[in-house]
Amino acid sequence: MHLKQLMYSITKPVSVAPLATFRFIFGIAMFISTLRFLWMGWVQDHYIAPKLHFHYFGFEWIEPAPAWALYAIHGLMLAASLGIAAGYRYRLSALLFFLCFTYTELIDITYYLNHYYFVSIVSFVMIFLPAHVNYSLDARWGIVQAAQYVERWQVGIIRLLLAIVYFYAGIAKINDEWLLHALPLRIWLPAHNDMPLLGPAFNYPLTAYLFSWAGMVYDTLIPFFLLHRRTRPFAYGVVLFFHGVTGYLFQIGMFPLIMSASVLVFFSSEWHERRWKQWLAGWHVPVHDFRPASYPHIQYAFWALFLAFQILFPWRYLFYPGNLFWTEDGFRFSWRVMLIEKAGSATFFVKDRQSGHEWVVDNREFLNTHQEKQMAMQPDLILEYAHYLHDYYEKQGISDPIIRAEVYVTLNGRPSTLYFPPDLDLSRLKDSWEPRRWLYPAPPLEEPIFHDIFKFF
């Protein structure tokens, strides 16, 4: 396809209805999520109560605001999400939501979740999309010129972002631990053998293998089935079943609901227009002719670079040696969803260089339970905690203390293993883009025991 044909294809006018539906769904989902966050007391637990917050690489300057400001920020997120849903002062609402949400998520990396990253990406993109030119209060009240059509790419970019999440989650499952060992599902499923109907089958290895392979096939192929009109109804039924089962089994919050609703954007323009006519019976807003984007070349170049980053960045792990799940070099921001069972225990020691006196750190003095759990199995968090302890005890009058740790980690059922040399002075190490060669290699998994698969029979 020539560039001119490609540009014609992606700028072709299409109905705004799918984009308006997504705007409404996204806004309502974010309102419920934020309300749930406040209701559960997580503003206090996550951001206010902890003494220490673990930072994202490059965002060490981000710190939690005062308590009143954090609650105000979440209140602003509630208002902004309703503004997005209703299409009222839409661009301002999308901008405020993106800034507030992304700021709160950058406060502490121990609360990182793939779908939080997805929300930040989507809310950023929506600032620039004309999702409010119809079926919105902005269009109804004349705040924006109403229109029936937008450029094709403006709907397609949301579909592509959803497709990336699914497809990359499927690609990530193409590894021997997931497919040949059925891990971690062989560990997780038996714990849910009380589930109605499916539960008894979870005791058998065959079920874990079937779920592992089905999960890989589902994630990899579902975007393509959603794109085609003939397979779309069947594909959406599979989406509902898949997210219903995973949501029941693994208690992963709003993610299954958000994804189940969001993929409706794949449905045809006619389907969305019918829904809007049913929901807004009697709604009539005079629409104007379709107008192409201003400064199109700059805009298209920006979005091409943005999408190139989204497509290429998850592959950065290929430049790192060793077991990705063990070192976690390139693990985050690559759509590795529910892929490993990993846990650790970390005992830290502080040593006075001058006197030689050494003592054990009580992690509970500095970290909450969740932070300690996450820190004990993630190398960058171990280093950040070590540097925090170094600075803390230096302020207590100990000159340049030595910080070492005995950390044992288990990955996908492996025996708990020493993660790195226990005599290593962690305060001398710094996290970077370079490989974490200071870690011991991951212990091997036992060979797959294929005869166990058929114990079901």
Automatic annotation (TrEMBL):
<feature type="transmembrane region" description="Helical">
    <location>
        <begin position="157"/>
        <end position="174"/>
    </location>
</feature>
<dbReference type="Pfam" id="PF22777">
    <property type="entry name" value="VKGC_lumenal_dom"/>
</dbReference>
<keyword id="KW-1015">Disulfide bond</keyword>
<keyword id="KW-1133">Transmembrane helix</keyword>
<dbReference type="GO" id="GO:0008488">
    <property type="term" value="F:gamma-glutamyl carboxylase activity"/>
</dbReference>
<dbReference type="InterPro" id="IPR053935">
    <property type="entry name" value="VKGC_lumenal_dom"/>
</dbReference>
<dbReference type="InterPro" id="IPR053934">
    <property type="entry name" value="HTTM_dom"/>
</dbReference>
<dbReference type="GO" id="GO:0019842">
    <property type="term" value="F:vitamin binding"/>
</dbReference>
<keyword id="KW-0812">Transmembrane</keyword>
<keyword id="KW-0472">Membrane</keyword>
<feature type="transmembrane region" description="Helical">
    <location>
        <begin position="234"/>
        <end position="267"/>
    </location>
</feature>
<protein>
    <submittedName>
        <fullName>Putative membrane protein YphA (DoxX/SURF4 family)</fullName>
    </submittedName>
</protein>
<feature type="transmembrane region" description="Helical">
    <location>
        <begin position="206"/>
        <end position="227"/>
    </location>
</feature>
<feature type="transmembrane region" description="Helical">
    <location>
        <begin position="21"/>
        <end position="42"/>
    </location>
</feature>
<feature type="transmembrane region" description="Helical">
    <location>
        <begin position="68"/>
        <end position="88"/>
    </location>
</feature>
<dbReference type="Pfam" id="PF05090">
    <property type="entry name" value="HTTM"/>
</dbReference>
<keyword id="KW-0456">Lyase</keyword>
<feature type="transmembrane region" description="Helical">
    <location>
        <begin position="95"/>
        <end position="112"/>
    </location>
</feature>
<feature type="transmembrane region" description="Helical">
    <location>
        <begin position="300"/>
        <end position="319"/>
    </location>
</feature>
<dbReference type="GO" id="GO:0012505">
    <property type="term" value="C:endomembrane system"/>
</dbReference>
<dbReference type="InterPro" id="IPR007782">
    <property type="entry name" value="VKG_COase"/>
</dbReference>
<feature type="domain" description="HTTM-like">
    <location>
        <begin position="11"/>
        <end position="271"/>
    </location>
</feature>
<feature type="transmembrane region" description="Helical">
    <location>
        <begin position="118"/>
        <end position="137"/>
    </location>
</feature>
<dbReference type="InterPro" id="IPR011020">
    <property type="entry name" value="HTTM-like"/>
</dbReference>
